[in-house]
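Example complex used in Figure S2.
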Amino acid sequence: MTAAAVNRSLLLLAGLRFYLRHPGQLGLTVAGIALGVATVVAIDLAAYSSGQAFEASTRLFRGQATHEISRPGDSLPDDLLARVRRDYGIAMSAPTVEGRLRLAVEPRRSISLIGIDPLSAARVGGATAAFAPGASNFAGLMTQPGAVLISAAVAQELGVETGDELKLLDGGGESLSIIGQVPGESGERYLLADIATAQEILQRTGQLTRIDLRLTADQAGLLTSQLRQEGLQLRPVAATLGQVDAMTRSFRINLQALSLLALLVGAFLVFSTVSFSVVRRREMFGLFRSLGARRREVLQLVLTEIVVLAAAGVALGLLGGIVLGSGLVSLVLRTIGDLYLSTSVDYFGVSLPLLLKAALIGFGASLGAAAWPAIEAARAPPRRAMLRAYLERQGRQAAGSRLLLSVALACAAAVLLLFTRELRLAFVGIFMVLIAAAVAAPPLVQFSMRGLAAASTWLPLSYAARSVAANLSRTGPAVAALMIAVATFSGVGLMIGSFRLSVDEWLSYSLDADVLVRPTDSRALAASGEEADLLAELRRLPGVMDLSLSRRRALPDGQGIATLLAVQPAVQGRWPQSEQPRARVLASLARPDQVLVSEPFARKRDVAEGDALSLLTPAGEREFSIAATFVDYSTDLGLVAMELGRYRQLFGDQQLDTIGVFTATGQTATVLAQVEDLADRRGDLRVTTSAFLRQLSLLVFDRTFTITQVLRLIAGLVAVIAVINALQAQRLDSRREIATLRALGFSPGQVLRLGEMQSLLLGTGAGVLAVPVGILMAWLLIVVVNRIAFGWSMVFVIDWWLVSQGVLLAAVAGLLAGWLPNRRSLRESPAVALRAD
Amino acid sequence: MSRAPESTVVGRPDARRLSASPISLSLRQVGMRYPAAGDVPAVLRDINLEIPAGDYLVIVGRSGSGKSTLLNLLGCLDQPSQGEVLVGGQSTRAMTETELAAVRRRDIGFVFQSFNLIPTLTVRENLLVPLQLNGAESEAAAERVFSLLAAADLKDREARFPEELSGGEQQRVAIMRAIAHEPAVLIADEPTGNLDLPTARLILELLESFGHGQGRTLIMATHSREVMGRAQRVLQISEGRLLEVTAAGPVP
Ligand SMILES: Nc1ncnc2c1ncn2[C@@H]1O[C@H](COP(=O)(O)OP(=O)(O)OP(=O)(O)O)[C@@H](O)[C@H]1O
Ligand SMILES: [Mg+2]
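Predicted assembly (1089 residues):
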């Protein structure tokens, strides 16, 4: 062995001994890396699997189809199919209608109903699985009213079988009869019906969700241009697979933001644990140097050691992340199954690149965290590296440059966030803000502790504050990690809170009627000419004050597809939610040349109040002027609102989707009963209450954000680990000091309380700092991200109780984390602790 | 923090007196064996020692002979594995850690070889610690600190932190801290071990002038022959036993 090799192995031995002697430190370092990596893996897996689920669901029943015709955000008229077949001679075309419904047996989860035309589906080569076992299904679907096939997953979940009836949740006691099962183990939840049955049940008579086609390249080329003129889209199926549907975008962006946030929190935790374990031994490295070890050797030692630790942490983290991720995935898939996908797919896949990415982050953050203090220890003159005072003084010098760096980062972020319209850049900006905050955290805590120490005349307090300040050269990264974790905890909470409040507020405007009545077949109602009678009858019911009428349809134009909302608002209603006074908005709406647009529409088209807007009507292009913008979260593609009478004139469409019934105060229940009676008598109406819809919407909202809540919990956990780290550092540093205090006659109780005061100060200091950071984070997520991604503006409300929960979390985490080390420091005889030098 | 007397660093309000009444220390059949040391013979064996109030005792011995161990026992920083330590005639064996702390706070001052000042407190504050612990009035404490600083010639250093002092200065502060509350016993474990000769002499003078006389007992471990010459009694530890060396006589 060469001298250098001996030297190195001895250095390694010293490193090993250190961890053996401090198993807590070893455990903490590995756990810190593991939790960081696990967080990244879990959230990423959830996002990835949901993507896979979207894709799998898009493939369902597509067979050999190469293209699809669809209209994003809206349905197709079913005469289109006939035209496609007749005008373009495309026989290989299969119509599908998809929608969601709720069954009486499982009112909390919606389920999708897919309506196909079995004959055309077979021609395109789709749905073969459904009919493989026997042709009886085939005929049964088309001939038996209300006949459905159920997927194996549904059969299992609901415990139903062939021959059973499924009652619908709403609607006049209609039910479906199960005539068979579609085999398969993929876990998709759906009901399959003949297209006519599905249209009827979904109240989409005459409407299609899409038409699948099997086309040659020539046919595709021809069709594309023809369809575009009608505002329809022809897309290759392959393209639709990976493509994010407008409806799902918000959810995916939410997930994406979360996974980035998780990445940051995870990386910070890794950074803080590792840098702590190195910083703690700076003196030792200095000693090695004073004994003649070369810089490179010291550096090698640290890096080797960290690679070994990181390997253990990353392995554990990947495993833990997969376990945690599988839990999250089922949560996420349930949500998207409920909200967006026509089919819910149980998909859990682990992708190698994803794991590699997390592992890289684990190693990268570990080495990055270790490198700086290691280089510092290796670079410093040997003797000086051992001197605490030198380190502290250096730390003090660093504080200034840290603050400067932080301010520079924050400024860059501000510029980025102000001017970007690019979502990815906005995320980068938020990242930079958080990193700036993390960089500034240790010096800020230090300053405030010094201030507290100077201001306090009570010696124990100023002593505790000063030792917290003094220890920050070591506890700094942990304090930063704690701060980020707590900020994430409260920031994400605030974001959800504000989002929910905005949605709730918007619901109170958009669902302003008390009872909602919907014709089961709006076309039939329009054709029968009975509308006026029905409305008069509703108005006559005692307790009814007013009615509002509305109709939604797609509004294709050159720039994409928005929704046209034709309304006749009620005088006593609240819609629309606009900054202008309602009376003025309604007055403008009543004028023939004025429309309202939703915020996303205004943003997408870059139009504002007072601008002109030309809309394509059956009678040709018409110029309108925009009277006002209003809040709407129902679609990010945008909404144009027009007075119903004007719409009927221009578009020649007499159908109604919803009649809102406004009742006198306290009369909702009686009115509801009468309207239900009326619906029973007539048989062509469905009745529900706004309160119910609102509740349902919020329920769905809460479920959507469950995964976000999980991230909050993880952040809480990270906070605890970070604070344990910080306190361990503090406790270790003060071992001698505590022994001295005891030699001076401090009683165990006094020592304990001093320790607890330090723990509390450290936790609270980081927690208080996290308050503005968390608020800023929430504000950026709510205001900047939403505006850029969707054009939604939201109220931003600071829930101070929630914010104080964050501070409380940090303080309690501090106290709890200090519990053991504080007590342990008492177990040792002061004589022994004083001997250790 | 409602249990005021115990929970504050200031300590019991009834711990009024600044000047301790003289007390004696005794060791009865004291043996000390460190648990981690395995089969190694005990560091101290069957030690019997009486230290009357006002004594000036020096302990010598080779490095590793157990000087620090003995002083730690006398200073109630550690408990013997055998026998008992009596402080003012009272056995410490059955005392709780809190009671031991009270003894240390009231009756004993300790000076270490490596100073052990509290790094995050200034010189002035370091001196205040034992006074506050013993419940001194803040005015009286301030006066006391003032006179201590003057005595140690440290008046212009009072706002500095320990790391901003030289070793000799730090040790001066440490001595002042040890006698600030006027303990009955002052124990110093190689107080000059880390200092050069002239500084060491200064420190010794300080120790002797404040730590001895008026019934106060001074116990010191040292390698310095000069000190041995000045003490009333010199004890030597060797192989776990204590030998009384003739008073004031040169050590072979
Ligand atoms: N915590 C401990 N665990 C095990 N053995 C110990 C411990 N502390 C001291 N010893 C042993 O006890 C013996 C006496 O140590 P002590 O520190 O009392 O010696 P000393 O006379 O003060 O030496 P020096 O003059 O070098 O300070 C030594 O052999 C030492 O190895
Ligand atoms: Mg010693």
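Chain A touches chain B at residues 388-389, 392, 459-460, 463, 466-467, 469-470, 736-737, 739-750, 753-754, 826, 829-832, 834-835, 837 (CB under 8 Å). Residues 295-339 of chain A form the longest helix (45 residues).
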